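2024-03-11 09:14:02 INFO worker-7 job=invfold-0412 stage=load source=structure_tokens
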């Protein structure tokens, strides 16, 4: 069989940029930061000379009884959902205190991500974190609501209220924010800076702090984990306590190797997100102790920087001031 070729080749069609066909052009973006691969940035070290910063993101939350949102242990029942409410409340009554004892044993400060409703419900718990020297991070009034559901004025009031109340009743003005359910509106970064916040934990897109653009100046995005996080792993993926601890250890070992690589080393951030109604359960706490002990020991030897998110944001801010031309991310 003879294959007959066409005498002329088809004329190539112009690409989308030439035709202006927006159906297949660049997608909508947030315009908060540009794409920049982690391999194309300037390097620096953390204050103690280490290349890996590790922090505990310790979430203290309160939920309304008989209404609103909340993580669930068992099937959701008609309100009042006593099973799931009381399981979460175990965290404030028991689990958080056991975790604080563990952090004391290991000399580990925490970044305490807290609802201001705790100041009404269990102020002793908040006070214990203040006495320990933990950093207080704004986390809305309650996790029974999503911030993304709020109108502009409501969101503005929420950010102002949480910051002023924590400052007034604890003596510590929060510089950072994690939205309830990590939910934002299109205005959230702008409103954070307008209200005096310096960094956000809402974005999980990087292993290094990233400078975000807002209508009121720079907002630092400090990496907050959605993988090394007990809610999505234990609740969402049904991971047991031993496997979650193993995951923390594997993540730590790999990030330490990446950060301290002899030719490709760079400053990285590893957060560990914890909720006391999960990791404060005795059988999970035992595994948390097992994995945090060698991390605390590495910090004691100066091999890593055990920090809080606010420490990290303050350091990268100082680096950006001292080296204004540095490619930070």
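2024-03-11 09:14:09 INFO worker-7 stage=emit residues=329
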């Amino acid at each position: 069989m003879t294959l007959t070729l066409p005498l002329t080749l088809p004329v190539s069609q112009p690409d989308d940029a030439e035709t202006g066909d927006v159906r297949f052009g660049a997608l909508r973006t947030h315009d908060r930061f540009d794409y920049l691969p982690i391999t194309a940035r300037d390097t620096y070290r953390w204050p103690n000379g280490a290349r890996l910063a590790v922090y505990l993101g310790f979430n203290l939350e309160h939920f309304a009884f008989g209404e609103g949102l909340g993580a669930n242990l068992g099937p959701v029942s008609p309100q009042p959902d006593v099973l799931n409410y009381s399981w979460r409340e175990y965290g404030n009554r028991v689990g958080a205190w056991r975790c604080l004892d563990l952090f004391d044993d290991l000399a580990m400060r925490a970044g305490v991500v807290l609802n201001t409703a705790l100041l009404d419900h269990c102020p002793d718990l908040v006070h214990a974190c203040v006495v320990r020297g933990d950093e207080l991070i704004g986390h809305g009034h309650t996790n029974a609501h999503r911030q993304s559901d709020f109108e502009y004025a409501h969101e503005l009031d929420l950010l102002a209220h949480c910051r002023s109340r924590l400052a007034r009743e604890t003596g510590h003005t929060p510089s950072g924010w994690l939205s309830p359910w990590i939910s934002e509106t299109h205005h959230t970064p702008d409103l954070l800076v307008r209200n005096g916040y310096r960094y956000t934990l809402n974005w999980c897109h990087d292993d290094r702090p990233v400078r975000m653009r807002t209508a009121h100046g720079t907002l630092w995005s400090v990496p907050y984990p959605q993988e090394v996080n007990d809610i999505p792993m234990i609740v969402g993926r049904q991971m047991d306590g031993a496997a979650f601890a193993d995951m923390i250890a594997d993540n730590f070992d790999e990030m330490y190797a990446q950060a301290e690589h002899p030719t490709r080393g760079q400053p990285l951030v590893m957060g560990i997100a914890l909720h006391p109604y999960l990791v404060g359960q005795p059988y999970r706490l035992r595994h948390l102790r097992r994995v945090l002990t060698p991390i605390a020991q590495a910090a004691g030897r100066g091999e890593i920087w055990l920090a809080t998110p606010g420490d990290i944001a303050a350091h990268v801010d100082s680096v950006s001031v001292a080296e204004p031309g540095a490619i930070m991310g």
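2024-03-11 09:14:09 INFO worker-7 stage=report msg="The chain has a mean pLDDT of 93."
2024-03-11 09:14:10 INFO worker-7 job finished
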